[in-house]
Amino acid sequence: MLQNQAKNQYRIPLFCIVTMLYWFSMYTYVPILTPYVEQLGASHEMAGIIVGSYGFTQMLLRIPVGILSDKMHKRRLFISIGILFAFFSGVGLWLTKDVSWILLFRSLAGVAAATWVDFTILFTSYYKHEEATKAIGTISFYNSIAQMSAMFLGSWMADKISWSAPFALGAAVGLAGFAASFFLIDKYEDNGKKISVKELLVVIKDRTLITVSILAILSQVLTFATVFGFTPVFADHLGVSKFGMGLLTVFSSLPTAIASLVGGGYFSKRFGEKKVVFWGFVLTGVFTITIPFTTSFWLLIVTQALAGFGRGFSFPILMGLSIKDMPAEKRTTAMGFFQAIYGLGMFAGPVLMGVIGDILTLKQGFIVLGIIGCLTAVLAQMTIRSNGQSAGVSAGATG
Questions:
Q1: What membrane topology was assigned to this protein in its record (predicted)?
Q2: Span 164-186, mean pLDDT?
Q3: How far apart are CA 320 and CA 255, in angstroms?
Q4: For the chain, what is the total number of helices (H) and then of strands (E)?
Q5: What domains sit in the chain, N to C, each tagged with a CATH number?
Q6: DSSP string, 98-150
Q7: How far apart (Å, rounded) are the C-alpha atoms in residues 80 and 22?
Q8: 3-state secondary structure of 2
């Protein structure tokens, strides 16, 4: 039996709009957040903790949120709550200039992002079971478009209006998303597979899941320490405007989305998943090392676009591998664990970079991170099983 069935259709277009408003509200200020808090007097380490708190709260909450929403049969409710937290986060960041409060309100964005599991599960339920990949690909596309649009517009407003303008924009869009979420249709399968603690303990013993989860943590370490963390700070030192920081982030993220399509499909079929992941980490590592040696803004954009291709080649395949060999009834639990565990990298990356930046310099921090990326490529080569078949994922948006 299906509860809360729609009489005509499940309003998929509305769901896509709500998804875009949700992600837009949390990414309007991402390109300028680190330089902004450092401009307020925060150390590199404190800036890293603030940026990383977004991943830390996700890591703690994603699995409990999935379990609780399963038990309550109220995924739409959790979606609305998630967008409400995004609104609170934006309002708080807009109103305060105290670094401690900024840490709290940035953490609330992580609480909001923890409900992404409910977005993906509810949206997938609108499709036939055999169309699950299509559903994930569709919602991931809107995820990526919303994030890039938010970063572009938010950084433009920071440049033309004020540092705090992107926070106000995020809050306004979050409020609109919260209102729109009440028109979504809940859909629940009584006999559908549920996330449970018991099932989780069984699933996490899988060798492949553990391996790709560790690699995913390291992937997020690189991403959130650089493009969503301290690369904009380096650009600021080059004299780049706030809008330029946004362009840098957008042009670093767009290749990731493009590479997700070809890496998880054509390349992995032709060359094998292991090789694509290996070269993805090599690209990311090498072009992270180049950052401190870059003296031109446009050259910095080129190098970070190439690093973005590396992220797009590696991460979606890791996501696909996390469930590829799992029985169908365990895939939801495996994906829930995978999404929760890579939040550790979102937290650890910016904190590690901040600590290195305070003890040494940011330039040396980029070199250390780049070396970690290259070593991760070697680790992937050693641990991923050779297989020429695709992981079956066409896009891999992160939260």
A1: Multi-pass membrane protein
A2: 95
A3: 19
A4: 18, 2
A5: 11-186 (1.20.1250.20), 194-391 (1.20.1250.20)
A6: -HHHHHHHHHHHHHHHTTHHHHHHHHHHTS-GGGHHHHHHHHHHHHHHHHHHH
A7: 10
A8: strand
